[in-house]
Hints:
With 457 residues, the chain is of the alpha+beta class. It folds into three domains: 2-66 and 107-183 and 278-377, 3-Layer(bba) Sandwich (FAD/NAD(P)-binding domain), CATH 3.50.50.60; 67-103 and 187-276, D-Amino Acid Oxidase, Chain A, domain 2; 417-457, no CATH class. It has twelve helices and 20 strands. The strands form four sheets. Strands 1, 2, 7, 8, 9, 10, 18 and 19 form an eight-stranded mixed β-sheet that branches. The chain has a seven-stranded mixed β-sheet with strand order 5-4-13-14-15-12-16, with helices on one face. A hairpin with a 2-residue loop joins β8 (133-140) and β9 (143-150). The two termini are 33 Å apart. One of its GO terms (biological process) is ubiquinone biosynthetic process. Its cofactor is FAD. InterPro entries: FAD-bd, FAD/NAD-bd_sf, RIFMO-like.
Amino acid sequence: MVPVVIVGGGPTGLGLAIRLAQLGVAATLVERHSDTAAFPKGRALSIRSMEIYRSWGIEEDVTAVGLPREHLAFYFGRTLTDPSGRRIVTGPGARPAVPSPTYTLLCSQDRLEPLLRAHAQRLQPGRIRFGTELVDLTVGPDGVTVEMSAGGHHERLRARYLVAADGARSGIRGRVGIAMAGPSGVSRNLNILLDADLGQHIADRPCAVYTIDQPGLHGAFLAVDNQRRWLFNLVADGDEVDLDRLDDGDCVALIRAAAGLPDLAVGLVGRQVWHASAQVADRFRHGPVFLAGDAAHVTTPYGGFGMNCGIADADNLAWKLAAVHHGWAAPALLDTYDPERRPVALASAVESHLRLTDTIDARHTGAPPRGRPSEGLVLGYHYTSAAVTADGTDPPAGDPVADYVPTGRPGHRLPHVWLDPEQTRSTLDLVAGDGFTLLAGPAAGWPRPRSRRSGFR
């Protein structure tokens, strides 16, 4: 019997495999596709996700495959080359810095996943199995039995726990009888992955998203490299466009019209029709089976919460699985995964839906959508599960979505403070690694020998 089987090789599944390996837990990951994602899909890594990657020791590697921080801006215009278009900066310098040792990073999923896969393969040698499909699952009180197929070869494997990170259409979620709730199909979209030399036209105003709004054409150029690689998202209002009937010529014409460049040379790489939803699973656990990432929650792209929620799921679940596996925590610790992560997913889904409807409303008024910070939702969420001992104080006041207020209250993110004049070591670095850290002032009366006996750093 293996400790953990992970189904799904996206950012959530690969991240979980990485973190479990760092915590000394062998995990077998199976992914039915032979390679990582070709489409960019998720693109923005939040401050909290980058803090998690920092704690895993891969922040610098991830930063190296992302775009410069100066590209964290939004453009609004009738076309990409509209001289009256507006650029709204959201990155460094847009407002007072959030207290963190890192930054939001624009890194598309097709660049992130190969990096995560390489780390996972190094840390879990021989256990990261792409091109392998789960074809059957039996759930028992003491574990699961999975049947896998790869190239016509079938294999059966027993595992103590299974984590379903197999996406929004999770087959495992359906097998164990967990339903999704929330708005579904709230907008119809077409994503066109393309190659076109647009970098020269935006060199003086690089952005993450270039929103295009003109009669009969509502969409956005989403930067992949801000040079030649782009994702164009077309939003269909009502029945004015049948997305499934658009051919290559139609797609090229759309791109040229959105760019304002009638002679633009466009290479089509691929396209996908999809529907935006904001749904969360009724529960995140069924016995030894856990849901994580898009299998547990789906958000609209507005706000960029989806992939980041999955990364935090992996970080939360990994240490709990490791604690139970190594025997220093009771299995009841795993019961805290749902009450900790599900409320965050619900809040993220609701906010993403509100931002989508706000964008649609703004389109009809002709004004750019109202933007608001999301630091409260990204950094200020807190846990109130049985694993947290409350101190009797109230959460900080403020907008739970927009406002982040640093606090030492139990269940909250540890506030960031630089520990050296060179600003290379953060308080968050004290709690990275594979153990617990006790922070105590000189008046606390907690001697170092006692900390060592208690297993604290």
